[in-house]
Specification:
heterodimer; A: mainly alpha; MetI-like fold; 2 domains; two-stranded antiparallel ribbon; 76% helix; B: Rossmann fold; OB fold (Dihydrolipoamide Acetyltransferase, E2P); five-stranded antiparallel sheet
Chain lengths: 554, 335
């Protein structure tokens, strides 16, 4: 009977695997070809060069440094919050936690914009401080520095740490702590000996994940860093390919980046699989705060967190209605929105409506393809004995950074004729599919694995075929997760800058790209209007996602 | 009529081997019982086709189903965790089983209503699975398993997740349902001997993947074929035979607590017909509702006796009628 089951699930996995091969391994192959082939003959020179060059080593050191520091500070900032959120019951606890989930769908380019608007020399924070301190000099000069990069990374990633650590901590039984204290251990000793060892894995794996995100961070570095001393591997690949136009050198560097990424990913995966077991208990760990100090700590943390989190975002909305233009007059105006919707003509904003349309269609297309492929693969992987290997294989797109992927795609485009369908938006859709695939798969696989196998067995004994049982029972019972995966992929695609920027070359315009261009041309009001639109879409997506999440939890 | 025969069925896992033969007559209610890890559930898995077998043959109603598809075996199964489809309501869960049988719409509805009333869930049609209690889930699972009129019904510890009162009640209902479905064979896996003794036509005791004994409940309890069966099927006392005689035909004797008579004065009865244990000291007394179970020490060995009154003295004598004693040699019963 085992063999028969293999048949249906294998059948649905063949086409997705083929597509995965086409959209992922082919571009990767192009990268390798670009790196190793010179005038049709094999050479290892360029790759060894990129591995040994002192300049690249300096870039690597910087990349590692910013990623480690970002991970460290994100975790440190998240830890007190994780303690409060996993041990105490209070008003708005759930709400604040779901808001922290927002960062999973928040486009990084939006964060960049928020930072420029809020922390910039002429930004909101400096304007307020200048008024308070009565000076004409901006007291805070943090933008375009190392600090700004770390701050932006912490902004984007500390909620990841908060929600991962809280999730694991709040699922620990309090009984072990109680037992320890009944045996006479002090609360500090109990924390160090009993609690800490149990939450340590989640702290470390959150740190590693953030490290991985920051290692391949692109748009934040590109805008907030940018200078030669603040360049990461990703930005350097982009610079080599799109500005210097030395494609083969970029490809060689991308091999370098891929190797480092793969190393980090493997460590992360090994690590997170080592600590999978979760304690099972029924009693809630949450208790009511027992002292005023605790109440104060909770309020303080939430206020700081909300200020840190929302101030830049709210300033974007405010700034979209506020003009500082000498030529068109200062003050509150809805000019940017008029331009955006084509009611007033403007050179910089004229493509925005088109960008909204193409962003939406690219996101819908890539999210659909990605969801269907990952569903088929997840169904197969969860049943197959060789599943673990293919799971790893389909996680590989996480290791290949999106800039590298974009490079692979542009190399692939160079090798097909101009009339081919593999140009422009189509390529962007495929690239986004690859980028979102691992996230969809990670959403679907655990939930499929947690399904009781006996449900399918029961259906078989009633006479249902594998396919029918899968369609009638398996897929409907994870429907909300499938929709969640789709929404997640949609949001990721909506905010994607890296691959799109590498690939678009002026032919495709999406909202984040438009945003990037407007920031670069210092049209902040326009950028903020576009940013607000992007934010609104993100918020809608986020609220949908939260609603579904609550459904699945119940 | 569908008798179920397992012949030399072998299933191998890295550190466990199931190797057994047994037969369930058509319409028989057979309980399979054994300690955890003995392979009880694997037997159900083998019969339903969920676990492939390495060797052996399975026949159901004369039909060789060893390599038959799961879908065509005509078995109904109730899993320990019920495995209800949460994405469907009660009625659809049951109707799902009818989907694969050619039946008119009206007939399907009638069957469904009949099944719901059979398990005592009239009016629960539209209820969501998540709103049901454990006992109700169990009934839905039972109705669903019965929907296809299976030739054999497999129950995998169906009551283990329920509280004691409900267990007793549902146990009786399961037996009634079995009796109503004429000719249907039921295999009931449990680890509770009292449940098995009260409900079954026959009990199969499993240990380490092998059949220890297969017999009527009375036989199992009164004449256990092995020492394992004796200890597994209820309270009792094992004593080394060397305490009483040098007969080499047996090495251990066994008797149930209710066979033991306790007296606080010396025994004056027929020594030929009885085994008498003098100078037993009372260790403890357990109240069992209708009677007391008294734990005694006889020359360093634990002796269990059932009495109507609490013993007054610390030292007592007990005697057992010889026909009620089982004699074992090398763990096996001798006649």
């Amino acid at each position: 009977m085992e063999k028969k089951r293999f048949d249906y699930y294998t059948a649905i996995s063949i086409i997705p695997l083929l597509i995965l091969f086409l959209v992922f391994f082919l571009p990767l192959y192009q990268n390798l070809k670009g790196a190793f082939l010179s005038d049709g003959s094999f050479t290892i020179k360029r790759v060894t060069e990129s591995f040994t060059s002192a300049y690249n080593r300096q870039i690597l050191v910087f990349t590692l440094k910013q990623a480690s520091l970002s991970a460290l500070f994100s975790v440190l900032f998240a830890l007190p919050g994780a303690y409060l959120f996993s041990n105490y019951k209070f008003h708005f606890r759930k709400l604040v936690l779901s808001i922290s989930n927002l960062c999973f769908v928040l486009p990084s380019i939006l964060v960049v914009l928020g930072f420029v608007i809020f922390y910039g020399n002429g930004g909101v924070l400096n304007t307020i401080l200048m008024k308070i301190l009565r000076t004409d000099e901006p007291p805070l000069r943090i933008l375009y520095s190392f600090k700004a990069i770390i701050l932006a990374h912490v902004f984007l990633n500390f909620p990841v740490a908060l929600s991962l650590i809280t999730d694991s901590w709040s699922h620990l039984s309090r009984n072990q702590e109680n037992a320890s204290m009944l045996m006479g251990a002090s609360s500090i000793k109990t924390f160090c000996k009993i609690t800490l060892p149990r939450i340590l894995p989640s702290i470390l794996s959150a740190g590693l994940l953030i490290f991985l995100f920051c290692f391949t961070s692109f748009s934040i570095i590109l805008v907030l860093g940018g200078g030669p001393q603040f360049t990461t591997i990703e930005v350097e690949i982009y610079r080599l390919n799109n500005i210097v136009r030395n494609t083969s050198k970029a490809a060689a560097l991308s091999v370098y980046s891929f190797s480092v990424n793969l190393f980090c990913l493997v460590i992360y995966l090994i690590f997170s699989s080592l600590f999978k077991n979760r304690e099972k208990h029924r009693l809630s760990r949450l208790v009511k705060p027992n002292s005023r100090l605790t109440y104060f700590a909770i309020t303080f943390y939430i206020v700081i967190m909300m200020l840190f989190f929302f101030a830049p975002l709210v300033s974007i909305i405010w700034r979209s209605f506020y003009s500082t233009s000498q030529r068109l007059g200062t003050g509150y105006t809805i000019r940017a929105y008029k331009e955006l919707f084509g009611l007033e003509s403007s050179l910089a904003m004229k493509n925005t409506l088109g960008a909204i349309k193409s962003s939406l269609s690219i996101a819908i297309a890539s999210a659909s393809v990605s969801t269907i492929i990952s569903l088929c693969l997840a169904l197969w992987i969860s049943k197959s004995k060789k599943g673990a290997f293919f799971e790893l294989l389909s996680m590989l797109p996480m290791a290949i950074s999106s800039v590298t992927l974009g490079l692979g795609y542009s190399l692939m485009r160079a090798s097909v004729s101009d009339g081919s369908i593999l140009t422009g938006p189509m390529l962007v859709v495929l690239a986004h599919t690859v980028i979102t695939l691992p996230f969809c798969l990670r959403t679907l696989l655990p939930i499929l694995r947690s399904q009781k196998e006996n449900k399918l067995n029961a259906a078989y004994t009633m006479g249902s075929s594998k396919m029918k049982a899968s369609l009638d029972i398996e897929i409907p019972s994870i429907l909300s997760s499938i929709i969640k995966a789709f929404i997640f992929a949609f949001a990721l695609s909506m905010g994607e800058v890296n691959a799109t920027l590498t690939l678009a070359q002026g032919k495709v315009s999406t909202l984040p790209l438009q945003l990037y261009r407007l920031i670069n041309s210092y049209n902040y009001q326009g950028a903020c209007a576009v940013g607000t639109i992007l934010m609104v879409i993100t918020f809608i997506v986020f609220i949908l996602c939260e609603y579904l999440f609550r459904e699945t939890e119940r | 009529m569908s008798e179920l025969i397992l012949e030399n069925v072998i299933v191998e896992y890295p550190n466990f081997k199931l190797d057994l033969s047994f037969k369930a007559e058509a319409g028989e209610f057979v309980s399979v019982i054994g300690p955890s890890g003995s392979g009880k559930s694997t037997i159900l898995s083998v019969i339903s086709g969920l676990t492939p077998i390495k060797e052996g043959k399975i026949t159901l109603g004369g039909r060789d189903i060893t390599h038959e598809k799961i879908q065509k075996r005509h078995v109904g199964i109730v899993f320990q965790d019920y495995a209800l489809f949460e994405n469907m309501n009660v009625s659809k869960n049951i109707a799902y089983a009818l989907k694969f049988h050619k039946m008119k719409r009206k007939e399907k509805k009638e069957t469904k209503d009949l099944l719901l009333s059979l398990v005592g869930l009239e009016g629960f049609d539209k209820r969501k699975i998540s709103t049901l209690s454990g006992g109700q889930c169990q009934r839905v699972a039972l109705a669903r398993a019965l929907a296809t009129s299976p030739e054999v019904l497999l129950l995998d510890e169906p009551l283990s997740a329920l509280d004691a009162n409900l267990r007793r009640h549902l146990k009786d209902e399961i037996r009634k349902i079995h009796d109503k479905a004429e000719g249907m064979t039921t295999i009931y896996v449990t680890h509770d001997i009292e449940e098995a003794l009260s409900i079954s036509d026959r009990i199969v005791i499993i240990k380490d993947g092998k059949v220890e004994m297969s017999a009527r409940p009375e036989e199992i309890y009164q004449h256990p074929a092995t020492q394992f069966t004796a200890s597994f099927s209820g309270d009792g006392t094992f004593l080394p035979a060397s305490l009483f005689s040098d007969n080499e035909n047996y090495d251990t004797i066994f008797f149930r607590p209710e066979s033991v008579h306790m007296t606080e004065s010396p025994f004056h009865g027929d020594f030929k017909m009885h085994l008498c244990l003098d100078n037993c000291s009372v260790l403890s007394t357990e109240y069992r509702g209708s009677r007391y179970l008294v734990n005694l020490d006889f020359r360093g060995h634990l002796v269990k006796a059932e009495t109507t009154d609490i013993p007054n003295k610390k030292i007592v004598s007990v005697y057992i009628r010889k026909p009620l004693i089982s004699f074992f040699k090398d763990e096996k019963l001798i006649n």
